[in-house]
Queue: 2 jobs
Job 1
Amino acid sequence: MSDILIKLALASGTIITMFSIAGLLTWVERKQSAVMQDRIGANRASIFGFKALGLFHAIADVLKMLSKEEFIPKGANKFLFNLAPYLSVVFALVGFAAIPIGNQLIIGDRVIELQAANINVALLFIFAMMSMGIYGVVIAGFSSNSNYAFLGGMRGAAQMIAYEITMGAAIMGIIMVFNTIDLQALVRAQGAYMFGGWLPKWGVFVQPLAFFLFLTAATAETKRTPFDLPEGESEIIGYFVEYSGMKFGMFFLADLVETVLVAALMATLFMGGWQVAYLHPDGFHFPWGATVALPHLTVMGLGVLSFFLKVSLFIWILMAIRWTLPRFRYDQLMRLGWKILLPASLFNIAITAIVIVLLS
Amino acid sequence: MENTTAQRRQELEKYFDAKGPFGLLRVAQMKRAWKQKNRRELTWWENTYLPTLIGGLWGTSKHFFRNLTLHILHVFGLYKDTRAAVTYQYPEQPRPLAARTRTRHRLMKREDGSPRCVACMMCETVCPARCIAITAAEHPDPNIEKYPAEFILDLGKCVYCGFCVEVCPEDAIRMDTGIIDTAEYSRASMIYDKKRLMADVVRHAK
């Protein structure tokens, strides 16, 4: 019984945390773009005179969305039209279940893996859920009875298929190096050290090319600029053109949740997840011989903290890319996906295989 | 493929020797042909998008970290003179106006508080938008011929050309209130009478 309760607490904690981060990203996005462009950003919403750096704009936005008319266009397939936004958000959120946010927490004689669902095919599960995210886009485009929405949906499908292959091929290198698709085991394997204990064996150091390929493909996966062809705000507005109110808000949120998911995935696969460099279960062991003993809970806390710091770092990078680059043209997008990224990721697999064979 | 600027100019001059009928059309065609002929193929390195990507991120990140540092320092009251954003918090912090900016009109007063205007009708005559309507009346003071019994200025029609100010022989009308946000709920309330034009205004920062 207590096992179920612990799992429930862990699962709801993970989902609520990630959902809050995604909600906070609306604020981060506004403020980061503003600071980049020498502006101040939204700062007018206030509650009893408190402005809190514009944080209340997120709440104001949600209230606005909730109070808007839910419009369903004539000739739309009502069931699918209503279903699509939920699919988008749910599949984006479910992926977090398999992300390890910390090491084993030991309380008394109970061992708790800080991972909502410690399944041994976690990577496959996350990729399956991210692929399912396409359905939200395609169904939204298909059911809206609008040419623009349909175009957006088709663009989304083509783009996500193109980039999902690269994404899968890019992490093949990681799977080959660490020999597992269990994310918790993958993170543990990244706790090893190279070059006489100086360099942590994180994914970004053993698979630098895969890191950049994955970063590009993941940016495309979030459907944000420079890969916002499915949305294409300036010409077709995209697969959610017919949506209004909170259903539009859900698509908007799904993009941000996907950004968090992709950032978490990159932190897990390439930056050692909850690993802190030189931190072992009993404290710091620096390569120059110094040791700092730390209690179990501190080590755990540092691990979770480092995971969220890494996630924030990647969110920052994704946001910086989004507010720096202009959008690709559609043929450029396809050429980049099929002619540059895919061969490069296959090349990466080949090189990794050769190096592994040579080293063993 | 590498052309120096001088070479390019020579080539352009040769190309654009376009005279006679359809000259401009030929210029356009030739420009296109010249562009196609001299198009520089991107190198392999440029085709990976990496140099532009890194350059762009470097540019925006420089701004980001500079402004973020300044914002944080401002919280602690440091470096207040260096601005971290170009934003003016508009209604509370109006944008500085140039000294010669033409803003909403006002009628100047004499020392006794009556209008300086002598109802000579110069501004009404010169106004290209015909937004001024003056009703003249005889002034009790024999030294002053007339005064405006009513002075109506329709800001809904005014084009802010400033001719009325230029033409006024008495310096009775000025456009220096600094008010640029004249907004009303109806056309009728855009029509300013003598009383409103002579009222003391809270000037925006100049």
Job 2
Amino acid sequence: MPKPEFIYVVYIETTPEKLWEALTSSEFSKRYWWNTEVKSDWKVGSPFALVMNGAPTDVGEVLEVDRPRRLSYTFHHVTSEVARRERPSKVVFNLEPHGKLVKLTLTHEDFEAGSKLLDGISKGWPAILSSLKSLLESGTALDVPLSALGIEGIE
Amino acid sequence: MNIEKFKPAIVYTIYIASTPQKVWQALTSAEFSRKYFFGNAVEVDLRVGGAYIVRTPEGALHISGEVIECDPPKKLIVTFNVNWPELIEKLGPTLVTYEIEQAGEAVKLTLLQSHDRPLSDDILSGGRQGWPAILSSLKSLMETGQALAVAMAPPQRMLDALKEMGIKTP
């Protein structure tokens, strides 16, 4: 059985510093992440939250902050009853300079076997990170409604 | 060819501000592909049984295959066999599927690399390294008019694994 995790790599024409800002600023995240604010003071041990249209969807704790190279936090989805019963998973971003580009590697791991959340985040991250890439490269985020991703329980 | 026994080993999804027709064209035209596919040119005869070829920037035959399914602008399935001696005998054929769907105002492009047998992570590392770079560059090209200059080292882990299996690599 493969390990229950999701890994996504995308190359972006930007700098590690700008990409770091995009991943950690709520003003920025609202533009590419369905109006979701990324909230934290980004100190190790501090709380982390995703707040969509004013309501928290995911909460956690900051685990690693190595600006602008590596960021990680725990991730506990709180809007669905089924996902709320799962233990928190872990999100890790690695930012590596790659010539004039940045290679962004997202690893979302530490899921329990049979996690319901894993399917949802596997559909969500490619859309979020595609939109982030568009915003950084062209100045315009993507217009992909959350409902178009085919995630169970989201109409 | 019976493709039922092929299972996806690599799945990569990317969303692009474009239309399904333009993404289809980018995936099937030599002129476009040279810009985002490390200088390689895709030449495809778009009918079932038609030839699917990828040439290196120098014009050498790099990948040869045939069209298995062709449903423009929604789905293309091709065999995708790197032209190295004994590769196909030892690893079996590789199948590449592109699925193109409208998603809101954007296009969802899904790539699947499938095989008829389990392959090691070492062998699959080549595709895992290459596809995100190729498709990131394709997205940039469609959205900004400029492909990415992704400087990519050879997929050493895969090449070492192939060598160990007695497959001659360039």
